[in-house]
Write a structure and sequence with these properties.
The complex is a heterotrimer. Chain A is of the alpha/beta class. In chain A, the strands form six sheets. In chain A, strands 1, 2, 3, 4, 5, 6 and 20 form a seven-stranded mixed sheet that branches. Classes of the chains: A alpha/beta, B alpha+beta, C mainly beta. At the A-B interface, helix 15, strand 23, helix 18 and helix 19 of A face helix 5, helix 7 and strand 15 of B.
Chain lengths: 469, 374, 97
């Protein structure tokens, strides 16, 4: 177990995030001779897709599937590479001068980095339906996490709702594990097919095609799938039933557990707080960093690899991590020998084939991204869709003014679960685009640290004088 | 000649601008507020929300009286806004503190107050230097290093972001036209009216009130006025929501009605609003924990920096133009404390077409020339 | 609501709001609460509405609980330990806890 005081004051490469991109990057850089440290805030490496890969209690490999177990090699490679892998380490700050603020067991340190690779990955897009804050409603990814890490599987009246590859994969995993799944409510509109069709040829040639078909067949054989255009979680103190509609009809299903998912989006908070430029991706309906071919960002010396660079999946993430690491090695140790980057680029291209089709097919519908009425938009501060829309009508043009007026985005999650919704609502209400509206301004700490930890950081004389005057 | 679109164009949609616009609308004026966009530098989104009296006016004694006037009118102002909008800005005047963490700090504080209250013409009001025991009676959670402080019963605070939202709601309800993303590039006076040039076209108004914070420095010369500004940056640390433990605002630490604790403050020459110095935040955090040790393990959820609106001497500038009749400057650092005055006194002056010299003459920018000459 | 697939991990005992709750090594506090069928772990500070873990990956901050006397810990990031005391966080956290 590495303590905060065990860390050196600087490293050639700091990798933030221990998912596939981070693990691959750290392994390559360390083997090439860079002093490398990887920080992950979870108890073990693997990120989300390979969560608990080093200690999962789910021993029957058919439950999680071979795509999951492929992550074990990545973890082993990183562990053997000479990189310092530190779990239970939360990075709360990164500035353009590549000073990294990290906290381990309540102790904060500032670490200098020659280069930084942000590999903090993705998070699930919010699914703001009425009642989504009720106990008994969870994200599908959350259920998948407790399956992988603790071997927990739904055993009561369980409904899944939404769309996207993760939803179907989890459904299959739950069923293989002997868990309960009563229905899948598919919120993706049929019309998505029209836009996806143009990208079908690439998809047919990609690894996703046969895997996807098999998975869908496996799940549909055992669970009824109902296409819905609206959805509500109902209950007093906890979920009691799920109400859903198709056209004019409305149906109810008693439920103890509702698992929501409509895709994943880059986890942008650290990158934005570091000053990295971001842009709106209209196909994937999210903000992502602006990067060059080596995944370098607009801030010199800081790269973003993995799903944080744009959603492309776990295998692509590893290749992106390696490409970014090669660039870091070339920058710091030009004489070091590195693998041929073209190998990675070829693998990456293969992984990226078929994504366009999946993105269009699974594109979440407007009503599920732009709620109305009393539906909660900001969970932390309990701000509703009606409040956001009314305030947009009052002349509030952007999310930062909206934050000042309504407090949305001011809670501990710092907009991770409301940012996209707020931006889209302002755009919808004012007849403009999310690209025009922009996103929250974010500053460190991007994860909470205590006042005592903050107070323990080194203070220069001029900084002290600015306060004590 | 067609009538101007508006009676008054207020340049600046911050607290000073919208308080003034609201006051003007109450006087029956047709008002337009021209504002910048979502990412504008806004002191209204970056202030400490104090409605503060103590130690105001060292160097310009009339400022103390002007401040107390606003402080006394604040409760009524808040009540009126609540009646109009249904929104409660949570104004409170429980009395406030400056706390000292050393005898040296306490002595320095006592000296400042002595000099302030010895000025000729200063209005008399109560401020007390308290020792540790006296402070502890009112603030039971203070840390062992607090040696004492100064207390003024007229000090208070408000939810300034809610005030900002409330004033915007209030001006909307009164039919004021609010135009965001309408940065004013030029102001000309032609044919008895003012023509304000923006990227989205020209706005015409019979009068213009410059309430654009530090940007008044750029705008004032366009109407024959001046507003010498010296912006400076300050940083704030904000905690998670906590159960109430602090009833009285301290000038660098206060608990909001939401339960969060705001911690300041710094004074830096940099004017990059996006910049943040960890060492400054760390110093603020350190002092906060020394003041109130029970805060040690509380989580920081956010830090931000903002650019203070600061005139050359720190005191307000209220002016009316001689070369461009109908143009006014409304410019100050304490947009929160003085909001009541701006809404209830200054706005009616502008509506009537002339500043009341008996109240605001000392705040004319002409004072900078007098000082230079002297 | 959830059942355990594998009983292989070593048993661990924690207390939740004073009551003993059995869980397993490798559980996080949030997972232990979910496995024990505990419906909510906190009440929201604005409205008092009951809330439960949502994302289980450290981004939603719904799983805030008091662990061994320290409030606002993200339960999904805290591994359980024998004898750990966990308390529901009711509304706003208390300074000093």
């Amino acid at each position: 177990m590495t303590n905060a005081s065990d860390l050196a004051s600087s490293y050639d490469l700091v990798v933030i995030g221990g998912g596939p991109a981070g693990l691959a990057a750290a392994a390559l850089a360390a083997r090439a001779g860079l002093s490398t440290v990887l920080f992950d805030e979870n108890p073990g490496v693997g990120g989300q897709i390979y969560r608990a890969i080093t200690f999962s209690p789910v021993k029957d490999r058919t439950i999680l599937g071979e795509d999951y177990w492929a992550g074990a090699d990545l973890a082993a490679e990183a562990a053997a590479s000479g990189a310092l892998i530190v779990t239970g380490a939360t990075v709360w700050s990164l500035d353009p001068a590549r000073l990294v603020g990290v906290s381990i067991a309540g102790q904060a340190r500032l670490i200098r980095a020659g280069r930084v690779i942000i590999a903090t990955g993705a998070l699930e897009r919010p699914v703001p339906v009425p009642g989504w804050t009720l106990p008994g409603v969870m994200s599908a990814g959350g259920a998948q996490t407790v399956l992988k890490a603790q071997g927990l599987v739904p055993s009561g009246r369980t409904v899944m709702a939404g769309g996207g590859p993760l939803l179907w994969l989890l459904a299959a995993q739950i069923l293989r594990a002997g868990g309960k799944l009563d229905a899948i409510l598919d919120t993706t509109p049929r019309s998505n097919w029209l836009r996806a069709l143009a990208h079908l040829p690439d998809f047919l040639l990609s690894p996703y095609f046969s895997k996807g078909v098999k998975l869908l067949r496996e799940v549909r054989a055992k669970v009824r799938v109902i296409r819905v255009d609206r959805l509500e979680a109902v209950g007093d103190d906890r979920l009691r039933e799920v109400v859903f509609g198709t056209g004019d009809g409305e149906r109810r299903l008693a439920a103890d557990l509702l698992l929501l998912h409509q895709g994943v989006v880059p986890n942008v908070n650290l990158a934005i707080a570091a000053g990295i430029a971001h842009a709106w991706n209209e196909r994937q309906l999210c903000f992502e960093p602006v990067l060059d071919g080596d995944f370098n960002s607009s801030v010199p010396g800081i790269a973003v690899a993995g799903d944080g660079a744009g959603i492309a999946g776990g295998t692509a993430a590893a290749e992106r991590g390696r490409i970014a690491a090669i660039a870091a090695v070339r920058a710091l140790r030009p004489a070091a020998s590195v693998p041929d980057v073209q190998i990675m680029r070829r693998k990456l291209r293969r992984e990226e084939m078929g994504r366009a089709f999946l993105d269009w097919l699974n594109r979440p519908a407007g009503p599920f991204r732009q709620p109305t009425g009393d539906t909660i938009v900001c969970r932390c501060e309990e701000v509703t869709a009606r409040q956001v829309r009314d305030t947009a009508d009052m002349g509030c043009e952007g999310p930062n003014q909206m934050k000042a007026f309504l407090r949305c985005g001011m809670g501990p999650c710092q907009g991770r679960l409301c940012g996209l919704t707020v931006t889209e609502l302002i755009a919808a209400q004012r007849g403009t685009t999310p690209a025009e509206v922009g996103y929250y301004r974010l500053r460190p700490p991007v994860k909470p640290i205590t006042l005592a930890e903050l107070a323990s950081l080194p203070i220069a004389e001029a900084e002290r004088k600015a306060v004590e005057r | 000649m067609a009538a101007s679109d508006y009676d008054v164009a207020v340049v600046g949609g911050g607290l000073v601008g919208v308080a003034t616009a609201w006051g003007l609308a109450r006087e029956g004026c047709r008002v337009v507020v021209l504002d910048e966009g979502d990412r504008a530098v806004r002191a209204s989104r970056g202030n400490f929300a104090l409605v503060w009296v103590q130690s105001k006016g060292l160097g310009l004694p009339e400022y103390a009286g002007w401040t107390i006037r606003s402080s006394n009118a604040w409760a009524g102002f808040a009540q009126t806004l609540k009646e109009e909008t249904g929104l409660d800005v949570c104004f409170q005047r429980p009395g406030g503190f400056h706390l000292a963490l050393s005898d040296k700090e306490l002595e320095a504080r006592a000296n400042v107050l002595k000099r302030l209250h010895n000025q000729p013409g200063i209005v008399d009001y109560e401020t007390e230097i308290m020792d540790r025991a006296q402070v502890a009676k009112m603030l039971p959670d203070i840390g062992p290093e607090v040696v004492g402080g100064s207390y003024c019963p007229l000090d208070g605070h408000v939810n300034s972001l809610r005030l900002f939202r409330t004033l915007h709601a209030a001006i909307k309800a009164r039919g004021v036209t609010y135009l965001p993303s309408h940065r004013v590039e030029n102001i000309a006076r032609e044919g008895g009216e003012f023509r304000l040039a923006t990227a989205h076209g020209e706005i015409r108004a019979r009068r213009v009130a410059l309430a654009a914070g530090n940007a008044n420095m750029r705008l004032a010369p366009m109407v024959g006025l001046e507003a010498p500004m010296r912006p400076e940056r300050g940083q704030i640390v904000v905690t998670e929501r906590l159960r109430p433990f602090l009833d009285h605002p301290v000038v660098t630490l206060r608990q909001t009605d939401e339960g969060t604790v705001m911690i300041g403050d710094s004074k830096e020459e940099s004017v990059d609003p996006a910049g943040l110095t960890l060492g400054v935040s760390a110093t603020e955090a350190e002092r906060a924990v020394r003041l109130f040790p029970l805060l040690a393990n509380v989580n920081v959820v956010r830090t931000w920096s903002a650019i203070r609106v600061m005139t050359h001497d720190g005191f307000p500038i209220y002016d009316e133009s001689e070369t461009h009749p109908g143009a006014f400057t409304v410019c100050c650092h304490s947009g929160v404390t003085l909001a009541a005055n701006h809404a209830l006194l200054v706005a009616p002056m502008i509506a009537r077409g002339a500043l009341d010299k008996s109240m605001v003459a000392p705040f004319s920018a002409r004072r900078f020339h007098v000082q230079a000459a002297g | 609501m959830f059942k355990r697939l594998a009983e292989a991990c070593a048993p661990v005992a924690i207390t939740v709001d004073g009551k003993r709750v059995g869980c397993r090594a490798g559980d996080t506090v949030a997972a232990a609460l979910i496995a024990a069928g505990i419906a909510h772990c906190r009440t929201a500070p604005v409205s008092g509405a009951p809330r439960a873990p949502y994302c289980l990956m450290g981004v939603c901050f719904e799983c805030l609980v008091t662990v061994d006397g320290t409030g606002s810990r993200q339960g999904c990031l805290v591994p359980v330990r024998d004898g750990m005391t966990v308390e529901t966080q009711v509304g706003r956290r208390e300074a000093g806890r």
